[in-house]
Design goal:
By secondary structure, the protein is α/β, with parallel strands linked by helices. It is built from 11 helices and 14 strands. It has an 8-stranded parallel barrel, surrounded by 6 helices. Strands 1-2 form a two-stranded antiparallel sheet. A hairpin with a 2-residue loop joins β1 and β2. α1 packs across α2, α3 packs across α5 and α9 packs across α10. It is globular, with a radius of gyration of 19 Å. It starts with a strand and ends with a strand. This is Putative aldo/keto reductase-like oxidoreductase. One of its GO terms (molecular function) is iron-sulfur cluster binding.
């Protein structure tokens, strides 16, 4: 694969990361067999970094993908995340990831979706657990993911964090409390102290799909980017992403096939009870309960992250 590489600890891997969110229960809800086979296909094509999370529910997909690929575990980087806050919960989250994916260590474990500096402070115990696990060799590096630019500007200087997973795309789509220029300032701070940065939402949750090639070229070639996580849920997407990252032209056939795939956050109105928990969870302020006591989605703001899906007590939300 003719893709530039990134140094992760002692490993050298292509900087295109297989993101497993889009195939997971939060979004397309693919069976592990189907999703795992796509991961295996990507690994056989040369991808070596898989990104997942406790919240995604994609550990079974990753397990199958690794086992079906025949690729040596030592060649792979596996990153995962958890949003738990206590010391005990984070240790359980690490154990869960290792057990469900049948791994004897996790390369990178991140605090998931840090919403604010206050939220980060509430996770001090969880961070302590990660730092101890790093010392014990259970994880290789400690990271955090966040949609918040204000938080990133401050937390970029926290020397305990080895890697950051932040939203970054050509239009700044999805940034909750800052501009693209401010996000660049945060990433510059990260790079200046020698920490790693890999991109979240390079296509803005699908909203940059019409200019996908240009958007991906912009982010993959950006001077501050170490690696890019891209959600993939078909062999065609794997092939297209590898072509773009290898600076090869994408075939019109693949473009046409992928152009017919659309995603949206769907509200099953018959099930919705208007409790508002989805809106409380949404960092984009993209979902609110209307006058009829039904959750209503603002398509201009929604980035299709799917984080609202598991908090619904009636399972009335689904990305389809």
């Amino acid at each position: 694969m003719e893709i530039k590489s990134v140094r992760f600890l002692e490993k050298e891997v292509p900087h295109l990361i297989f993101g497993s969110l889009t195939m997971a229960p939060l979004q397309r809800n693919m069976p592990p067999e189907e999703g795992g086979d796509i991961i295996a296909y990507a690994l056989k094509k040369g991808i070596r970094w898989i990104d997942t999370a406790q919240m995604y529910g994609s550990y079974p997909h990753v397990l199958r993908g690794i086992s079906q690929s025949g690729i040596d575990r030592k060649e792979l980087v596996i990153s995962t995340k958890s949003a738990v806050k206590s010391y005990a919960e984070m240790n359980r989250a690490i154990d869960e990831a290792m057990e469900e994916m049948k791994l004897d260590y996790i390369d990178l474990f991140l605090l998931h979706a840090v919403r604010s500096l206050e939220d980060f402070g509430e996770r001090e115990e969880a961070l302590t657990a990660l730092l101890e696990a790093k010392e014990q060799g259970r994880i290789g590096a400690v990271g955090l993911s966040s949609h918040s630019t204000k938080s990133a500007l401050v937390l970029a200087e926290d020397s305990r964090i080895d890697w950051y997973h932040l939203m970054f795309n050509i239009r700044g789509t999805g940034l909750t409390d800052g501009t693209l220029d401010e996000q660049i300032q945060a990433i510059e701070k990260i790079k200046n102290r020698g920490a790693g940065f890999y991109v979240m939402k390079p296509l803005g949750g699908g909203y940059l799909k019409s200019t996908a090639e240009d958007a991906l070229k912009w982010v993959k070639d950006h001077r501050l980017v170490d690696a890019v996580a891209l959600g993939m849920m078909s062999r065609e997407e794997v092939d297209m992403n590898i072509d773009v990252f290898s600076n090869r032209p994408v075939s019109e056939e693949i473009k046409n096939r992928l152009g017919t795939v659309e995603k949206k956050l769907f509200v099953f109105e018959a099930l919705c009870i208007g409790c508002g928990k989805c809106g409380e969870t949404c960092e984009q302020s993209a979902i609110k309960v209307n006058a009829d006591k039904i959750a209503e989605v603002d398509k201009e703001k929604c980035i299709l992250c799917g984080y609202c899906v598991p908090v619904c007590p009636k399972f009335a939300l689904r990305i389809i």
